[in-house]
Protein backbone atom coordinates (compact mmCIF):
# COMPACT_ATOMS: atom_id res chain seq x y z
CA UNK A 1 0.00 0.00 0.00
CA UNK A 2 1.54 3.25 -1.16
CA UNK A 3 -0.19 6.17 0.56
CA UNK A 4 0.97 8.91 -1.79
CA UNK A 5 3.13 8.08 -4.84
CA UNK A 6 3.38 11.76 -5.68
CA UNK A 7 5.31 12.34 -2.44
CA UNK A 8 8.29 10.29 -3.59
CA UNK A 9 9.95 12.87 -5.87
CA UNK A 10 9.26 15.67 -3.40
CA UNK A 11 10.77 13.79 -0.47
CA UNK A 12 13.83 12.92 -2.56
CA UNK A 13 14.16 16.53 -3.65
CA UNK A 14 14.13 17.58 0.00
CA UNK A 15 16.60 14.80 0.81
CA UNK A 16 14.15 13.16 3.19
CA UNK A 17 14.79 9.61 2.08
CA UNK A 18 14.45 8.40 5.68
CA UNK A 19 10.82 9.45 5.62
CA UNK A 20 10.37 8.07 2.12
CA UNK A 21 11.77 4.66 3.04
CA UNK A 22 9.50 4.23 6.07
CA UNK A 23 6.43 6.10 4.88
CA UNK A 24 4.42 3.05 3.82
CA UNK A 25 5.17 1.09 7.00
CA UNK A 26 4.51 4.08 9.25
CA UNK A 27 1.24 4.87 7.46
CA UNK A 28 0.07 1.30 8.02
CA UNK A 29 1.12 1.52 11.67
CA UNK A 30 -0.75 4.80 12.12
CA UNK A 31 -3.94 3.35 10.66
CA UNK A 32 -3.81 0.18 12.74
CA UNK A 33 -2.93 2.00 15.98
CA UNK A 34 -5.23 4.96 15.22
CA UNK A 35 -2.41 7.38 15.87
CA UNK A 36 -2.91 11.11 15.99
CA UNK A 37 -1.50 13.09 13.07
CA UNK A 38 1.19 14.56 15.29
CA UNK A 39 2.26 11.10 16.51
CA UNK A 40 2.41 9.89 12.91
CA UNK A 41 4.54 12.90 11.97
CA UNK A 42 6.81 12.36 14.97
CA UNK A 43 7.48 8.78 13.86
CA UNK A 44 8.43 9.92 10.37
CA UNK A 45 10.72 12.64 11.68
CA UNK A 46 12.43 10.22 14.06
CA UNK A 47 13.08 7.88 11.13
CA UNK A 48 14.69 10.72 9.19
CA UNK A 49 16.83 11.76 12.16
CA UNK A 50 17.96 8.16 12.71
CA UNK A 51 18.90 7.82 9.03
CA UNK A 52 20.95 11.01 9.09
CA UNK A 53 22.73 10.05 12.29
CA UNK A 54 23.59 6.65 10.86
CA UNK A 55 24.92 8.29 7.71
CA UNK A 56 27.09 10.67 9.75
CA UNK A 57 28.39 7.76 11.80
CA UNK A 58 29.28 5.76 8.69
CA UNK A 59 31.06 8.77 7.20
CA UNK A 60 33.08 9.42 10.35
CA UNK A 61 33.95 5.73 10.62
CA UNK A 62 35.17 5.68 7.02
CA UNK A 63 37.24 8.83 7.45
CA UNK A 64 38.82 7.47 10.63
CA UNK A 65 40.60 4.84 8.51
CA UNK A 66 40.70 2.22 11.24
CA UNK A 67 42.53 -0.96 10.25
CA UNK A 68 39.60 -3.09 11.37
CA UNK A 69 36.49 -2.62 13.43
CA UNK A 70 37.77 -2.96 16.99
CA UNK A 71 35.44 -2.14 19.88
CA UNK A 72 35.63 -2.37 23.66
CA UNK A 73 32.92 -5.01 23.55
CA UNK A 74 35.36 -7.23 21.62
CA UNK A 75 38.29 -6.62 23.96
CA UNK A 76 39.22 -9.53 26.25
CA UNK A 77 39.90 -7.84 29.57
CA UNK A 78 40.19 -11.20 31.31
CA UNK A 79 43.44 -11.91 29.47
CA UNK A 80 44.96 -8.70 30.87
CA UNK A 81 44.05 -8.74 34.57
CA UNK A 82 46.47 -5.92 35.46
CA UNK A 83 44.95 -3.51 32.97
CA UNK A 84 42.97 -0.77 34.71
CA UNK A 85 39.54 -1.61 33.32
CA UNK A 86 37.90 1.25 35.20
CA UNK A 87 40.22 3.74 33.56
CA UNK A 88 39.57 2.27 30.11
CA UNK A 89 35.82 2.63 30.54
CA UNK A 90 36.27 6.12 31.94
CA UNK A 91 38.25 7.06 28.82
CA UNK A 92 35.48 5.54 26.71
CA UNK A 93 33.12 8.23 28.01
CA UNK A 94 35.22 10.80 26.13
CA UNK A 95 36.20 12.95 29.08
CA UNK A 96 39.78 13.15 27.84
CA UNK A 97 38.44 14.63 24.60
CA UNK A 98 36.94 17.55 26.49
CA UNK A 99 40.16 17.92 28.47
CA UNK A 100 42.20 17.72 25.25
CA UNK A 101 44.51 15.35 27.10
CA UNK A 102 46.84 12.74 25.59
CA UNK A 103 46.34 9.02 26.16
CA UNK A 104 49.50 6.91 26.12
CA UNK A 105 49.18 3.14 25.65
CA UNK A 106 52.47 1.33 26.18
CA UNK A 107 53.32 -2.36 26.36
CA UNK A 108 54.90 -5.36 24.62
CA UNK A 109 53.68 -6.79 21.33
CA UNK A 110 50.42 -8.70 21.51
CA UNK A 111 48.93 -6.87 24.47
CA UNK A 112 46.11 -5.20 22.56
CA UNK A 113 47.49 -1.65 22.35
CA UNK A 114 46.21 -1.03 18.83
CA UNK A 115 42.90 -2.68 19.72
CA UNK A 116 42.47 -0.39 22.71
CA UNK A 117 43.40 2.69 20.70
CA UNK A 118 40.97 1.86 17.90
CA UNK A 119 38.26 0.92 20.40
CA UNK A 120 38.58 4.32 22.10
CA UNK A 121 38.50 5.90 18.67
CA UNK A 122 35.36 3.94 17.84
CA UNK A 123 33.75 5.23 21.04
CA UNK A 124 34.64 8.77 19.99
CA UNK A 125 33.09 8.23 16.56
CA UNK A 126 29.88 7.07 18.25
CA UNK A 127 29.89 10.31 20.22
CA UNK A 128 30.05 12.36 17.02
CA UNK A 129 33.78 13.11 17.15
CA UNK A 130 35.97 13.15 14.05
CA UNK A 131 38.88 10.72 14.36
CA UNK A 132 41.96 9.91 12.30
CA UNK A 133 43.89 6.69 12.87
CA UNK A 134 47.38 6.31 11.42
CA UNK A 135 50.70 4.70 12.13
CA UNK A 136 53.59 6.96 13.04
CA UNK A 137 55.44 5.96 9.86
CA UNK A 138 52.44 6.68 7.62
CA UNK A 139 51.85 9.99 9.37
CA UNK A 140 55.37 11.29 8.80
CA UNK A 141 55.39 9.98 5.24
CA UNK A 142 52.18 11.85 4.47
CA UNK A 143 53.62 15.08 5.87
CA UNK A 144 56.80 14.64 3.87
CA UNK A 145 54.78 13.96 0.71
CA UNK A 146 52.77 17.13 1.37
CA UNK A 147 56.01 19.08 1.61
CA UNK A 148 57.03 17.78 -1.82
CA UNK A 149 53.81 19.09 -3.34
CA UNK A 150 53.88 22.42 -1.53
CA UNK A 151 50.90 21.59 0.67
CA UNK A 152 52.73 20.90 3.93
CA UNK A 153 51.20 23.78 5.87
CA UNK A 154 47.70 22.84 4.75
CA UNK A 155 48.24 19.18 5.64
CA UNK A 156 49.69 20.09 9.03
CA UNK A 157 46.80 22.42 9.78
CA UNK A 158 44.26 19.74 8.82
CA UNK A 159 45.85 17.18 11.13
CA UNK A 160 46.15 19.71 13.92
CA UNK A 161 42.40 20.37 13.77
CA UNK A 162 41.31 16.73 14.06
CA UNK A 163 39.58 16.37 17.45
CA UNK A 164 41.16 12.95 18.01
CA UNK A 165 44.36 11.78 16.33
CA UNK A 166 45.51 8.22 17.01
CA UNK A 167 49.19 7.54 16.32
CA UNK A 168 49.95 3.83 16.34
CA UNK A 169 53.42 2.22 16.66
CA UNK A 170 55.31 5.28 17.84
CA UNK A 171 59.03 4.51 18.05
CA UNK A 172 58.78 1.37 15.94
CA UNK A 173 61.22 3.02 13.53
CA UNK A 174 63.67 5.79 14.46
CA UNK A 175 62.62 9.20 13.20
CA UNK A 176 65.10 10.79 10.81
CA UNK A 177 65.00 14.31 9.46
CA UNK A 178 62.61 15.74 8.44
CA UNK A 179 60.22 13.21 10.00
CA UNK A 180 61.32 14.08 13.53
CA UNK A 181 60.69 17.78 12.95
CA UNK A 182 57.35 17.08 11.27
CA UNK A 183 56.12 15.00 14.20
CA UNK A 184 57.29 17.63 16.66
CA UNK A 185 55.49 20.36 14.73
CA UNK A 186 52.26 18.36 14.76
CA UNK A 187 52.50 17.55 18.47
CA UNK A 188 53.23 21.20 19.24
CA UNK A 189 50.23 22.36 17.19
CA UNK A 190 47.90 19.91 18.92
CA UNK A 191 49.24 20.53 22.43
CA UNK A 192 46.29 21.39 24.71
CA UNK A 193 44.18 22.01 21.60
CA UNK A 194 43.08 18.47 20.73
CA UNK A 195 43.33 14.95 22.14
CA UNK A 196 45.94 12.51 20.90
CA UNK A 197 46.27 8.78 21.53
CA UNK A 198 49.72 7.23 21.11
CA UNK A 199 50.66 3.55 21.24
CA UNK A 200 54.20 2.25 21.52
CA UNK A 201 56.18 -0.93 22.15
CA UNK A 202 58.91 1.14 23.79
CA UNK A 203 59.07 1.49 27.55
CA UNK A 204 58.64 5.08 28.66
CA UNK A 205 62.34 5.68 29.42
CA UNK A 206 63.12 4.60 25.84
CA UNK A 207 60.84 7.06 24.07
CA UNK A 208 63.63 9.55 23.45
CA UNK A 209 65.30 6.86 21.30
CA UNK A 210 62.65 7.54 18.66
CA UNK A 211 64.49 10.81 17.99
CA UNK A 212 68.09 9.55 17.69
CA UNK A 213 69.37 12.55 15.74
CA UNK A 214 67.92 15.32 17.90
CA UNK A 215 67.52 14.80 21.64
CA UNK A 216 66.45 18.41 22.14
CA UNK A 217 63.56 17.82 19.75
CA UNK A 218 62.79 14.62 21.64
CA UNK A 219 62.63 16.49 24.93
CA UNK A 220 60.28 19.16 23.56
CA UNK A 221 57.99 16.65 21.83
CA UNK A 222 57.75 14.14 24.66
CA UNK A 223 57.25 16.83 27.27
CA UNK A 224 54.09 17.92 25.44
CA UNK A 225 52.90 14.36 24.94
CA UNK A 226 53.20 13.34 28.56
CA UNK A 227 51.83 16.53 30.09
CA UNK A 228 48.52 15.66 31.82
CA UNK A 229 48.52 12.33 29.99
CA UNK A 230 46.42 9.32 30.88
CA UNK A 231 48.51 6.16 30.79
CA UNK A 232 47.52 2.59 30.03
CA UNK A 233 50.14 -0.13 30.34
CA UNK A 234 48.66 -3.50 29.33
CA UNK A 235 50.79 -6.55 30.11
CA UNK A 236 50.44 -10.20 29.23
CA UNK A 237 49.17 -11.27 25.80
CA UNK A 238 45.81 -11.40 24.07
CA UNK A 239 46.82 -14.30 21.84
CA UNK A 240 48.32 -17.70 22.51
CA UNK A 241 48.41 -19.54 25.85
CA UNK A 242 47.38 -17.63 28.95
CA UNK A 243 50.51 -16.40 30.70
CA UNK A 244 51.47 -14.20 33.61
CA UNK A 245 52.15 -10.48 33.37
CA UNK A 246 55.48 -9.40 31.90
CA UNK A 247 56.71 -7.28 34.79
CA UNK A 248 60.19 -6.86 33.36
CA UNK A 249 58.93 -5.20 30.18
CA UNK A 250 56.62 -2.47 31.43
CA UNK A 251 57.75 0.03 34.01
CA UNK A 252 54.26 0.64 35.38
CA UNK A 253 53.21 -3.02 35.52
CA UNK A 254 53.41 -3.05 39.30
CA UNK A 255 51.46 0.19 39.73
CA UNK A 256 48.27 -0.27 41.80
CA UNK A 257 45.14 -0.78 39.77
CA UNK A 258 43.59 2.59 40.50
CA UNK A 259 46.74 4.56 39.69
CA UNK A 260 47.75 3.69 36.15
CA UNK A 261 48.16 7.37 35.35
CA UNK A 262 51.60 8.90 35.33
CA UNK A 263 52.39 9.02 39.05
CA UNK A 264 53.78 12.27 40.43
CA UNK A 265 55.67 10.46 43.15
CA UNK A 266 59.41 11.03 43.15
CA UNK A 267 60.39 7.44 42.37
CA UNK A 268 58.36 7.43 39.18
CA UNK A 269 59.56 10.92 38.34
CA UNK A 270 63.12 9.60 38.43
CA UNK A 271 62.43 6.60 36.24
CA UNK A 272 60.02 7.85 33.58
CA UNK A 273 60.74 10.45 30.94
CA UNK A 274 64.07 11.54 32.42
CA UNK A 275 64.39 14.40 29.97
CA UNK A 276 61.99 16.71 31.84
CA UNK A 277 59.33 16.80 34.59
CA UNK A 278 56.59 14.29 33.97
CA UNK A 279 53.49 16.44 34.11
CA UNK A 280 51.52 18.62 36.48
CA UNK A 281 53.01 19.09 39.90
CA UNK A 282 49.58 19.27 41.52
CA UNK A 283 48.61 15.75 42.52
CA UNK A 284 44.89 16.54 42.51
CA UNK A 285 45.10 17.77 38.93
CA UNK A 286 47.43 15.04 37.72
CA UNK A 287 45.97 11.85 39.13
CA UNK A 288 42.60 11.49 37.51
CA UNK A 289 41.54 8.75 39.93
CA UNK A 290 39.03 6.26 38.58
CA UNK A 291 37.52 3.72 40.93
CA UNK A 292 35.69 0.61 39.79
Describe the structure.
This protein is α/β, with parallel strands linked by helices and 292 residues long. It is 47% helix and 9% strand. It is built from twelve helices and five strands. The protein has helices spanning 7-13, 17-33, 37-64, 85-92, 95-99, 113-126, 136-148, 152-161, 179-190, 215-226, 266-271, 283-286; strands spanning 103-106, 131-135, 164-170, 195-200, 230-232. A five-stranded parallel beta sheet has the order 2-3-4-1-5. It is elongated, with a radius of gyration of 24 Å. Residues 239-292 have low confidence and may be disordered.
Layout of helices and strands, plus pairs?
Elements: H1 7-13, H2 17-33, H3 37-64, H4 85-92, H5 95-99, E1 103-106, H6 113-126, E2 131-135, H7 136-148, H8 152-161, E3 164-170, H9 179-190, E4 195-200, H10 215-226, E5 230-232, H11 266-271, H12 283-286
Parallel strand pairs: 1-4, 1-5, 2-3, 3-4
Key attributes of the depicted protein:
5-stranded parallel β-sheet, 292 residues, elongated, 47% helix, alpha/beta
Task: Put the structure in a nutshell.
By secondary structure, the protein is an alpha/beta fold.
Task: Name the helix and strand elements from N-terminus to C-terminus, one letter apiece.
Answer: HHHHHEHEHHEHEHEHH
Number of helices: 12
Number of strands: 5
Low-confidence stretches: 239-292
Largest sheet: 5 strands, parallel
Rough outline: elongated
Mean pLDDT score, rounded? Answer: 80
- As a whole number of angstroms, the C-alpha radius of gyration is 24 Å
Structural class: alpha/beta
Strand order of the largest sheet: 2-3-4-1-5
Kindly report how far apart the N and C termini lie: 53 Å
The level of helicity is: 40-55%
Q: Quote the beta fraction.
A: 5-15%
Amino acid sequence: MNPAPELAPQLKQLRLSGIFDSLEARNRQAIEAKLAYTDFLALLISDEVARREQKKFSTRLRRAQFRTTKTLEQFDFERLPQLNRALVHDLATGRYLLEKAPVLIVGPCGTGKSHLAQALGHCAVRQGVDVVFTTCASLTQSLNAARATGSYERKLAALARVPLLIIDDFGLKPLRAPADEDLHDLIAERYEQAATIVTSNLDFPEWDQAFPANRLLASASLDRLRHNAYCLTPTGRLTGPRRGPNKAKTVLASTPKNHQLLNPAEDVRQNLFKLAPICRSEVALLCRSVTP
